[in-house]
Amino acid sequence: MKWSFRIAQVFGIDIKIHITFFLILILGAVQWGGPAGLSGAAFGVLLMLLLFTCVTLHELGHSVVALRFGIPVREIILLPLGGVALIGRNPDKPLHELLIAIAGPLVNFAIAAILLVITGFAVGPNVLDGRGLLTDMQMTPSLSTLLVWLLAANLSLALFNLIPAFPLDGGRVLRALLAMGLGYPRATAIASVIGQLAAVALGLVGVLSGNFILVLIAIFIFTGAGQENSEAQARTVLDTQRVGDAYNRHATSLAVGDRMSKVVGHILTSYQPDFAVMQGDRLLGIVTRGDVLRALNTESNDLYVTQIMQREVVRVTASQSLDEVRAVMGEKGARTVAVYDNEQFLGLVGLEDIAEAFTVLSFMQRFEQRRTVADSQPASL
Predict the structure, then answer these.
(1) Beta partners for residue 277, in sequence order
(2) What is the pLDDT of residue 375?
(3) Which phi and psi angles does 346 have, rounded to 5°?
(4) CA 185: distance to chain centroid?
(5) How much is the pLDDT for 263?
(6) Chain mean position to CA 345
(7) Considering the domain boundaries, does residue 374 fall inside one?
(8) Strand pairing category for 254-255 and 274-279
(9) 12 with 127, same domain?
(10) How many domains would you assign to the chain?
């Protein structure tokens, strides 16, 4: 993600923060600095940092289990509204999705249990019945206040994420359980509807109570549930087509002696986004439209294509489905892959090609469904 930078690496996973993350630190300083001055502002920043440490551990819970099942995790990005683990692909088995989804909330429950014990010593036994909890959640910077806020935040994070609504963890748990008996497409459709109904209810509560934050959360859940359903439909449709039947057989390729000016001409006349650089029948690399634009911004158009090409190209086999290829792209962070039949290079496939194939295949599928329905109806006399 743009405007994010790495602060750590755990189990090979990059931990990054988005530049907007600093807004939450400013918010913490302002919120706590008002009643308590400079020391309160420092306390607010510390509290926010510890809260987002818990968020990071939540995302690591998902990520470590995903890695255990052989699913790559590219990075974890911390944003003002929470964290996002960029997992390379969806799990193939419902049980795997269930365990990956539940791992995050379980981490927060474990943190809360540890904090409950520590807070019991710092605040006293009243923390168990809530009296100490309510007292120490006042805006008074102290160790007990810090512990109680962290305890409450971890419990809230775990319980909120277990709401059975996409894209929350609870929605994925629900889909995994349903998929064990119904299959992924139907399970996703049901879980998406439940998620959107929950979002509507939450939005109404927010409107009636005047809580704008609840309305924003409801919008987030509603759109996320719809996106999950669309993603499931895409997986179903793209799984029916081999990439060996979908690559562009008429694509223009480049030779090692070609210069950038020739690529610019091809881009203007063909709208082709990616070009294979060939030496005979052997693929040397690829040149993308982005590569050309970046080079034009810094160099002349007299460069050879071999000077700007990407030499490391992800390979897929012709027998793989478009959905499998899309998953490989997600795992490798690649926008374009090379299609091979054994050791013979066939052509390139990019995300734009897969999107176009999805549009055509979806239309054909709907057409076939309408024709099937029409053929099944009795002819009128």
Answers:
(1) 254, 285
(2) 64
(3) -100, -45
(4) 19
(5) 85
(6) 31
(7) no
(8) parallel
(9) yes
(10) 3
The DSSP 8-state label assigned to residue 357 in this structure reads H
Pairing of strands 282-288, 314-317: unpaired
Angle (nearest 5°) at CA 105 between 101 and 111: 145
pLDDT score at 96: 94
For residues 208 and 130, state if they share a domain. Answer: no
Would the CA dihedral through 115, 116, 121, 123 be positive or negative? Answer: positive
The pLDDT of residue 130: 52
Please give the Cα distance from 283 to 164 (Å, whole number): 48
User: Which one-letter DSSP state was computed for residue 197?
Assistant: H
Beta strand 344-350 pairing with 274-279:
unpaired
Residue with tokens 């927010």: 206
Q: Between vectors from CA 20 to CA 15 and to CA 24, what angle results, nearest 5°?
A: 90
330 alpha carbon, distance to own chain's centre: 10
Distance of alpha carbon 114 from alpha carbon 11, whole angstroms: 23
Structural tokens at position 142: 């102290």
pLDDT for position 381: 46
3-state secondary structure at position 258: coil
Is 225 strand, coil or helix?
helix
> Which parts of the chain have pLDDT scores under 50?
134, 381
Q: Per the domain annotation, does 193 fall within a domain? A: yes
For tokens 């995300």, the residue is 351
Amino acid at 13: I
Query: Nearest Cα to 273, choosing from 289, 256, 255, 291?
Result: 289
Say if residue 157 is in the same domain as residue 250: no
What tokens does 227 get? 């996106």
Q: Which of 303, 319, 315 is nearest to 339 (CA)?
A: 315
The answer to the question of residue 367 being in a domain is no
Query: Could you tell me if 291 and 208 are in contact, meaning their C-beta atoms sit under 8 angstroms apart?
Result: no
Cα–Cα distance, 48 to 55 (Å, whole number): 10
